[in-house]
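In the design runs reported in the main text, the only information available to the sequence generator was the tokenized backbone. The following block is the verbatim input for one such run; it is reproduced so that readers can re-run the procedure and compare outputs position by position.
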């Protein structure tokens, strides 16, 4: 299960409760049920489909729990974006043409958000991502965009400095997969490595590549760390197998796209993530609600309410509050190391 599952559940809970909570009359009796439609854009098919299906289960559970707790009638509509910007655009066009839809969770990775950002902005539709980390997404060009995860300007330097200060490589390889998420992280990390005097071999491969033997052949004996800011977990797992086949000892350091206990299991690898262990975090809480003020949910008032989000605790292990750009305030990443049994062990601090 990928860590972004809990992030998606958090994002959806924020939208649902913000968009519509139960209303009462002046005498204390229940009023007409408050109804709204929420969209969810994620990858539900292909190699990345299984985590998306788990996210959908969490989302549906969140809707059911909120409907029961708040006496609301929230409808969840989901669309499969297939990790494709073009497909994300198609799903978004369907969503914004639905007059009942007030907000969206999605859409997946940074490259999908780049594709749908202009459409969401034009429609005045709030959309919250639990996984898109490219720093440029919150530069102001998409004013209705929010995310519950820190951006690459946090993750890139944090991960790079950990590598410099704790793994002490004299030479490393960093490989982008030619997508916005990956290239953004590379841009944030490479200057830190170079400033530390580390020899950097920057490689680039397509996400469609499935055999990394030729790439692994470029890993020299002096290269002790390979940084993989990738999204395709199966590719990273295969890269690790190719390393072992060629008897290369370099340690893999993956970013949040590779946080996949049970799927990415190369022993000795490191993986960063924007959420800690969910089993050790208090449950998520409800936030401000449009319906409690007697309003009918709309794209405009849901957007305004989301901007005012101030949740003191969450299943992320940290408060949820958005800054003026839509970034989660004071976000941080956590780091795990994979042991010999393939289990993730959280590194303190």
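Verbatim output:
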């Amino acid at each position: 299960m990928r860590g972004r599952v809990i992030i998606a559940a958090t994002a959806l809970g924020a939208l649902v409760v913000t968009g519509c909570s139960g209303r009462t009359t002046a005498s204390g009796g229940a009023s007409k049920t408050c109804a709204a439609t929420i969209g969810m854009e994620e990858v539900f098919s292909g190699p990345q489909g299984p985590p998306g299906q788990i996210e959908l289960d969490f989302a549906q559970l969140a809707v059911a729990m909120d409907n029961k707790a708040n006496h609301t009638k929230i409808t969840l509509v989901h669309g499969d974006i297939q990790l494709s910007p073009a497909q994300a655009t198609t799903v978004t066009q369907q969503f914004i043409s639905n007059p009942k839809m007030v907000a969206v969770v999605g859409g997946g990775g940074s490259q999908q958000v780049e594709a749908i950002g202009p459409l969401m902005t034009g429609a005045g539709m709030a959309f919250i991502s639990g996984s898109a980390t490219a720093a440029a997404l919150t530069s102001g060009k998409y004013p209705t965009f929010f995310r519950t995860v820190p951006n690459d300007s946090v993750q890139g330097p944090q991960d790079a400095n950990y590598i410099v200060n704790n793994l002490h490589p004299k030479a490393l390889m960093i490989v982008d997969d030619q997508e916005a998420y990956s290239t953004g992280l590379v841009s944030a990390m490479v200057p830190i490595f170079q400033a530390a005097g580390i020899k950097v071999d920057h490689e680039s491969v397509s996400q469609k590549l499935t055999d990394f033997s030729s790439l692994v052949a470029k890993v020299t004996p002096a290269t002790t760390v390979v940084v993989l800011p990738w999204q395709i977990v199966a590719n990273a797992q295969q890269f690790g197998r190719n390393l072992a086949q060629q008897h290369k000892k370099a340690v893999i350091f993956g970013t949040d796209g590779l946080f996949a206990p049970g799927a990415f299991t190369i022993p000795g690898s490191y993986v960063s993530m924007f959420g800690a262990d969910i089993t050790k975090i208090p449950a998520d809480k409800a936030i401000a609600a449009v319906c409690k003020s007697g309003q009918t949910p709309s794209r405009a008032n849901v957007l305004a309410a989301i901007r005012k989000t101030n949740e003191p605790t969450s299943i992320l292990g940290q408060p949820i509050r958005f800054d003026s750009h839509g970034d989660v305030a004071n976000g941080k990443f956590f780091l795990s190391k994979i042991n010999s049994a393939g289990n993730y062990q959280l590194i303190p601090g």
